[in-house]
Amino acid sequence: MRRRDLLAGLASVGVLGGAGAVATGNVPTALGGDTPGSGETATDASEPVDSVTIDTIDAPGSRDGEVTLPAPDRPTFVDFFGTWCPPCAEQMPDLVAAHDRIGDEVLFVSVTTEDVGDAVSEETVADWWREHDGDWLVAADVSAELAARLNVGGYPSARAVDASGRVRWATSGTHTTEEFVDGIESALDR
């Protein structure tokens, strides 16, 4: 069995389990969850997260290529979304506003774990991105390796990681612009 197939299979189990948790409204903290709709500062941020290089998608504000997340030596904000996820679409105006306010201070990236290039076309993601006014880097974590390293179990989810690679804010559910900005600021050295 190829490593990619194994990782995709394991990721599917994690996504299905996370989807079940989201459906019940109870995303375990171990899966990166908290009370849906609320933010929580990471309390055990002692271990840096190992970076993963994933493909980016040619879409507004993005480019075709690769990105390493979390970014080495730079604060990183990662929004996990799915084109199939209504709450992900609902919160896009708040993400747009947060990006406009603070996006230059961090590497601001939205990531889908959908099987882009196979089950979902890159064009589908780019069209969704355009429709919801995304204008920053968007990427595909098709193996869900980054999602696993950041303990993502539900969608939407967000992580703010400081320049040393430590998660400083981990949350799931939808958020306001202010909640996003506060979460991102927790990863900045100010």
UniProtKB/TrEMBL annotation:
UniProt protein name:
Redoxin
PROSITE patterns noted in UniProt: THIOREDOXIN_1, THIOREDOXIN_2
MF GO annotations? oxidoreductase activity
Tell me the keywords, alphabetical order: Cytochrome c-type biogenesis
Which organism does this sequence originate in?
Answer: Halorubrum kocurii JCM 14978
Q: Which GO terms describe its biological process?
A: cytochrome complex assembly
- UniProt main location, coarse: other
Q: Where in the cell is it found?
A: Cell envelope
Which InterPro entries does the entry link to?
Answer: Redoxin (IPR013740), Thioredoxin-like_sf (IPR036249), Thioredoxin_CS (IPR017937), Thioredoxin_domain (IPR013766), Thioredoxin_ResA/DsbE_sf (IPR050553)
Residue intervals of the Thioredoxin domain: 43-189
Q: Which residues form a coiled coil?
A: none
